[in-house]
């Protein structure tokens, strides 16, 4: 029995060794395949990253170029507006000067009816006819008034009782 079981056992051991070798090869193939997949995924990620970087650079260049174009356009528009204002000022200059000279040399000295009535009332009352703005001013105080006021201020004692506590 031992002899008959020996060839069977040997067959089983050989089968087990072959199975172990097949499993080891399968694991090696699996490792190789995983390594290939990882490298392929890294290449795919790198391609995607490069394409996104190119898109970003393109947009950045478009934006930068666009902003410099708009800057040039704004500069041109500003200069055009300044030139238009200068031309307009130069063309209106003679008319403005004429108007200023006319206003300075042709002063209206006529008196309105209300002003005339006011002057007549003052003359009837025996008061000198002063312009309305001088009448509203307070009379000037003499030096005596101000020195008298200063003397009174110096003689005054403090009225704060809480200071004497």
Automatic annotation (TrEMBL):
Pfam families per record: V-ATPase_G (PF03179)
Cellular-component GO terms for this entry: vacuolar proton-transporting V-type ATPase, V1 domain
Keywords linked to the UniProt accession: Hydrogen ion transport, Ion transport, Transport
An annotated Gene Ontology molecular function: ATP hydrolysis activity
Residue ranges, compositional bias (Basic and acidic residues): 40-62, 134-153
Matches recorded under InterPro entries: ATP_synth_B-like_membr_sf (IPR028987), V-ATPase_G (IPR005124)
Region spans: Disordered: 40-72, 115-165
Composition skew (Acidic residues), residue ranges: 154-165
Compositionally skewed regions (Low complexity) per UniProt: 63-72
Described purpose of this protein according to its UniProt entry: Subunit of the V1 complex of vacuolar(H+)-ATPase (V-ATPase), a multisubunit enzyme composed of a peripheral complex (V1) that hydrolyzes ATP and a membrane integral complex (V0) that translocates protons. V-ATPase is responsible for acidifying and maintaining the pH of intracellular compartments and in some cell types, is targeted to the plasma membrane, where it is responsible for acidifying the extracellular environment.
NCBIfam families: V_ATP_synt_G
Complex formation: V-ATPase is a heteromultimeric enzyme made up of two complexes: the ATP-hydrolytic V1 complex and the proton translocation V0 complex.
Annotated family: Belongs to the V-ATPase G subunit family.
The protein's name in its UniProt record: V-type proton ATPase subunit G
């Amino acid at each position: 029995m031992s002899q008959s079981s020996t060839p069977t056992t040997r067959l089983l051991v050989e089968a087990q060794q072959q199975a172990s070798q097949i499993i080891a090869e399968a694991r090696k193939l699996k490792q190789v395949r995983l390594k290939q997949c990882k490298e392929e995924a890294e290449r795919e990620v790198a391609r995607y990253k490069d394409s996104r970087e190119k898109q970003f650079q393109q947009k950045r260049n478009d934006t930068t170029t666009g902003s410099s174009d708009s800057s040039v356009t704004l500069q041109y528009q500003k200069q055009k507006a300044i030139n238009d204002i200068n031309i307009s000022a130069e063309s209106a200059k003679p008319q403005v000067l004429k108007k200023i000279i006319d206003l300075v040399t042709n002063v209206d000295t006529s008196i309105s009816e209300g002003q005339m009535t006011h002057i007549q009332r003052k003359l009837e009352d025996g008061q000198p006819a002063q312009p309305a703005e001088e009448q509203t001013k307070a009379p000037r105080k003499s030096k005596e008034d101000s020195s008298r006021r200063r003397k009174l201020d110096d003689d005054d004692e403090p009225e704060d009782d809480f200071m004497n506590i």
